[in-house]
Structures are given as C-alpha cells and as structure tokens.
Design a protein that fits this description.
Elements: H1 13-35, E1 39-42, H2 52-61, E2 68-72, H3 74-78, H4 84-91, E3 95-98, E4 102-105, E5 125-128, H5 137-142, H6 156-168, H7 189-201
Parallel strand pairs: 1-2, 2-3
Antiparallel strand pairs: 4-5
Helix pairs in contact: 1-2, 6-7
Length: about 230
C-alpha cells in the first residue's frame, strides 16, 4: 500500500515524512561532523532510505550534509531489481562503506519483488551465500577502480588476525584494496605488511601442506531445490 497506493496517498505526505526524518537526523549529523566521522546509511528494502531516490530526498532535507553518506550493499539492490553498478557511477562520491553479501531475485508467474507475503525460503527475492546469488562482484569491485576509495574498512589488528588465520589454515595471505592508490587512509598497511614479512621469512614452514579434511561440502545452483 505504500509503494503503489490506490487511492493515491494525500499530497505532501511523503514530503512531510522526509522533512521530519531530516529534522531528527540533522543534529546527529552535526555531532558526527564535530567528531570528524561520517555516517553511512545502509540503504535497505523496506526502510525509509532504500534506493538512490530516497537517499536524495533525505540528503536534500539535511542540506547536503557532508557527513550523510552511503553504505553500499549490492545485495539490497538485487532484491529491488535496481542496477547496482549504475548506482556506483551515480553515488560514488557518497559511498563510505561496502558490505559483501549476495542475493537473488527469481521472479515467476506467481510472484515478484513483493514476495506475496511468503516465507523467506519461498519468496522470489532472498539473500544467498556469497557466490550463490546474482551479484557479480568481479564487476562491482572493479567498478570502484577509478574512484577515490578507502583501502579498507577494517582496522589493522583485525586484518592481521584474519591473515594469521589464513596462514594457520595453510593458505597464502592475500590482500586487496579498492579505488585509486593515492588515498590517505593507509593506517592498516603497516600491520598487514608485518604478516607478509612473517610469511616471507617462514615460507618453508607453509610449503607442501596437506589438508586433514576427509569431507568436502559443495553447493551449486543446481542444488537450490534441496537447500531447505
């Protein structure tokens, strides 16, 4: 009833709602600005801010506040049949964080984006394990290459822990960053370098490792009917 209402909603209702939203958030954004911290809104289906148009409405209401930014999650846009790559082209200057998740939208002759009030496993749009959905991350990640971007949203110690776990599991350490390489946010790099230095100095210890696992679990698109 809120998206395609009939009869039409009263004129000015949505504008009034976004005005109230902006009035409540503006003082909060000002406090974040004093602290030098950005606010990244996670645009999500069903929320007030769920796509580019609703973000623009909000941004206008808070006077294009420099601290009002976006947490980019392409899986949320798949569920809305929204072009998640074009979104990057339009809003890259406001994107400050990135969620790596996956989703699918398998419309049929019985149900589409709205889902028909079905359960999670039955509705056409649902989140999936990474790689089992419709998000092409090879395209999404490389789409940021020409835009200024943070090296990483995780702090150095958290990344060191992840890389150390990779070494403990017998994998080679790997690290990537998105965007142009001239960004000032280099804080995690010294800590990450320490792990790569350790691996180089002790590389012989990690050579010719064999897994102790005797069972392999494999999930493919063909197995979806049996996921339940």
């Amino acid at each position: 009833p809120y998206f395609y209402p009939w009869p039409q909603r009263p004129s000015g209702l949505v504008e009034e709602a976004f005005g109230e939203l902006a009035k409540r958030w503006k003082p909060i954004l000002d406090v974040f600005d004093e602290a030098g911290v950005d606010v990244a809104y996670e645009l999500h289906p069903g929320e007030d801010l769920h796509d580019g148009v609703t973000f623009e409405r909000f941004l206008e209401g808070v006077g294009n506040h420099p601290r009002a930014n976006i947490l980019y999650d392409p899986s949320h846009f798949v569920l809305q049949a929204l072009d998640y790559l074009a979104f990057i082209d339009i809003y890259h200057e406001r994107i400050r964080a990135f969620h790596v998740k996956d989703a699918e939208l398998q419309s049929s002759g019985r149900s589409g984006v709205y889902g028909g009030y079905q359960s999670w496993v039955d509705r056409p749009g649902r989140f999936r394990s990474l790689g089992d959905g419709a998000v092409r991350y090879s395209s999404a990640l490389t789409h940021f290459v020409d835009f200024p971007w943070r090296y990483s949203a995780e702090n150095g110690p958290a990344q060191v822990l992840r890389l150390a776990q990779q070494l403990a599991n017998g994998a080679d350490p790997h690290y990537y960053f998105m965007g142009t390489p001239d960004q000032p946010d280099r804080k995690p790099l010294p800590a990450v370098k320490s792990i790569f230095d350790f691996h180089r100095e002790h590389e012989a210890l990690y050579a010719a490792l064999e897994t102790a696992a005797r069972v392999a679990l494999y999930n493919s698109r063909k197995s979806r009917p049996y996921d339940r």
